[in-house]
Amino acid sequence: MLGKFEKFNRRLSGCCEWLGIVAMLLTMMITCIDVVGAKVFLQPLLGAIDIVMLSQIVAISFAASMALIVGRHIRVEFFFRLLPPRAQAVINSFVLLLCLGLFIVVVWRLGVLGHSFQTSGEYSPTAYIPLYPFAYAIALASIPVCLVLLLEFLKSLTKRAQK
């Protein structure tokens, strides 16, 4: 059962990662166009800062779940490795549960923030891009993170049960 869930998480996170890669490429493209336009033609790209800012948000949030799967997130393991295996398992399960709770709150609050942006008509400062789709997108991108954390939590519980 966990194997199917793991494959689903990897596929979903892979799709999200591609969206993050596209957003990173957009960031690079807009930056290059802005620099060349400003230095060569003395005409910077209007709203480039807003576009880069929003595409970075998309790139980071959509790549987070795959970074979590492949272990590219930050961990502090110096003290943790000195503990006995049973204590490591208990602490790991507790930390995963806390992280899962945090990301559930993040999804919920980003949904509320997106609704607030939508009803108030919040826009970016120079390009006047509506901000609410980005809040909803980050909330949507945080759901695979929740699923990965749930899977890791379930794995840690089954490891503890097997020992």
Question: Please, could you describe this protein's structure?
Answer:
With 163 residues, this protein is mainly alpha-helical. The chain contains four helices and no strands. The radius of gyration is 20 Å and the shape is elongated.
Give the secondary structure arrangement, pairings included.
Blueprint lengths: L1 H38 L8 H23 L14 H36 L11 H31 L1
Helix pairs in contact: 1-2, 1-4, 2-4, 3-4
Q: Summed up, what is this model?
A:
This protein has 163 residues and is mainly α.
Number of helices: 4
Number of DSSP E strands:
0
- Distance N to C terminus: 20 Å
Q: How would you describe the shape?
A: elongated
For this entry, give a set of tags.
single chain, 163 residues, mainly alpha, 4 helices, 79% helix, 0% strand
